[in-house]
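Page 42, continued from yesterday. The earlier attempt failed because a stray header line got pasted into the input along with the sequence. Redoing it now with the clean sequence only.
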Amino acid sequence: MPTEQGFSDFFYAAPDGLCLHARIYGEANSGRWPVVCLPGLTRNCRDFHELALYLSAQTKRKVVAFDYRGRGQSAYDADIGHYNIGIEAGDILAGLAALGIEQAGFIGTSRGGLIIHVLGAMLPAVLKAIVLNDIGPVIEAQGLAHIRSYIDLAPRPKTYAEVVRDLRSTHGADFSALTDADWERMASALYRKTEEGLLPDFDSRLVDTLAGLDLSSPLPDLWPQFDALAAIPLLVIRGANSKLLSAETLEQMRTRHTDIETITADDQGHAPFLETGGLPGKVAGFFDRAERRGGGK
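This time it went through. Structure tokens are written below.
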């Protein structure tokens, strides 16, 4: 049953038996495509809370926001080699099967968007419409280096006020659009309270999965996987100050996809907050238009 916060917790078994978690919003909603939300590398389902409340209440859609293994309320994996997008894509399919969801609209922020590319290769029929939040088939090494640096040096604050201060110090220049309330929501999504104090809400060994990347050379791209999504309605949101998704890559995405819409989130970097700047209404409108046309085939 939904809690007073507007969602219910759902736990299920990954293909290898690991216990994984998702939040379900609008659980009783039916008759419309559900929406599946996939967060970034070290992020969790709480990033989508405000957007999920909006979509479930205003558009009467069921919304499922996932925690990957090693994040949020999902169990940590003893083998850090399992923290990869292929296994995580399989985990998402297992969760959808457990929920009886055969088709949905998908929202992928950063790593979540990469997982959507993999899902397009594994089970394309599940994808009816796609929102990519500041991610595309080309990842800029500068942006990944920035992510690696602030994950590796994640502070150990004593209070949420200190978290907000540190977040502003690290990201404030790229996110001048954010209000105090936005920063506070970000802080509460990133950290959890423990007996040891506040800790980042992810397995610290995720940092090790980036250690071997050579960021002095271009990273492998996903253009073949992107091109395979050509029949699926697509909305791409890019932060105007993004270091991960370049304006050049976004323009190339426009030329290679036949049914694409784009939004630039002014005064935001990687990745735009989807509950800000009128984005909830724009995301809802995109899914409504895609559903009226029948979505991906």
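Notes: Strands lie at 7-13, 19-25, 35-38, 63-67, 104-109, 127-133, 191-194, 197-200, 234-239, 260-265.
Reminder to self: strip header lines before submitting.
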